[in-house]
Amino acid sequence: MHPEAARAWPAPAKLNLFLHIVGRRADGYHLLQTVFQFVDLCDTLHLTPRADGALRMLTPLPGVPPEQDLCVRAARALQVHSGCRQGVDIALTKRVPMGGGLGGGSSDAATVLLALNRLWDLRLPREALAGIGLALGADVPVFIGGRAAWAEGVGERLTPIELDQPWYLIVDCGAAVATAAVFGHPKLTRNTPPITISRFRDGTTGNDCLAVVRQLYPAVDAAYRWLSRYGRAQLSGTGGSLFARFEGHAQAAQALAALPAPWRGWVVRGLNRHPLLDD
């Protein structure tokens, strides 16, 4: 057995500190500008290599057939790319809410690629893993790259960026936002002028999806109005999770204590480095 086969592999959530839609490609994909920062809210994966080539999801997610699960798809894509004949049993402990704009599925897929690259002794460079990951989802490469990043294109052109690592309160109101419905909405802003990193640092940014998500999902609108009482409420990705920055853990925890039921919340720390970057 591989010496790392029994270990737990973290898959952190991410926040989009802003999200501008600056255009649209001929194939219909939206062109974006955004900044990704990881947080210490993580899913956990246990991966046990198999000699027979089978890929088994031991902890299927509700409503997600195993063959469509991003973890299984990532393992299969790595098999195909590398020609590896090994398989894996995958067990996932899910903490990052699904459909919340926090990148949980993409992060899980990235961690599967990073972990199996070692467990299967493939020794592929991160650039090759990122290429495999991009075919699974536009957010996967940032988790493979492992650094907080300024992103352009469909989110795959990444420039590492150093950010403050503040405390955030993340609020999940239970709305699983359909990304396709947001990007297909006629009122979505699609022509925000491109900005520079220095302008992002000046704070003149927002999330172009926020107005549409608030209109389509009343629960997100209610959570946005509640969180705005404590700070600048922001939408991560296309939602439906919201977050606000706090100066310290105590202030974020105080707001969390007042969170209305049945919403869920987490006090998290911003991270500029993926937990597996230096592993």
Walkthrough of the structure:
29% of the residues lie in helices and 28% in strands. The protein is an alpha+beta fold and 279 residues long. It has 2 domains: 9-160, Ribosomal Protein S5, domain 2; 167-271, GHMP kinase, C-terminal domain (Alpha-Beta Plaits, 2-Layer Sandwich), CATH 3.30.70. The model has no long low-confidence stretch (mean pLDDT 95).
| Strand segment count | 10
The major β-sheet equals: 10 strands, mixed
Number of individual domains: 2
Point out poorly predicted stretches: none
Any guess at the CATH architecture of the largest domain? 2-Layer Sandwich
- CATH class bucket of the largest domain: Alpha Beta
| Class of secondary structure makeup | alpha+beta
Features:
Alpha-Beta Plaits; 10 strands; 28% strand; 2 domains; 279 residues; Ribosomal Protein S5, domain 2; alpha+beta
Write a concise synopsis of the structure shown.
This protein is an alpha+beta fold. Helix content is 29%, strand content 28%. Helix 1 runs parallel beside helix 2 (104-119).
List the helices and strands and how they pair.
Elements: E1 9-24, E2 30-50, E3 55-57, H1 70-82, E4 87-93, H2 104-119, H3 126-134, H4 140-145, E5 149-153, E6 157-160, E7 167-172, H5 179-183, H6 197-202, H7 210-216, H8 218-227, E8 234-235, E9 242-246, H9 249-257, E10 264-271
Parallel strand pairs: 3-4
Antiparallel strand pairs: 1-2, 2-4, 2-5, 2-10, 5-6, 7-9, 7-10, 8-9
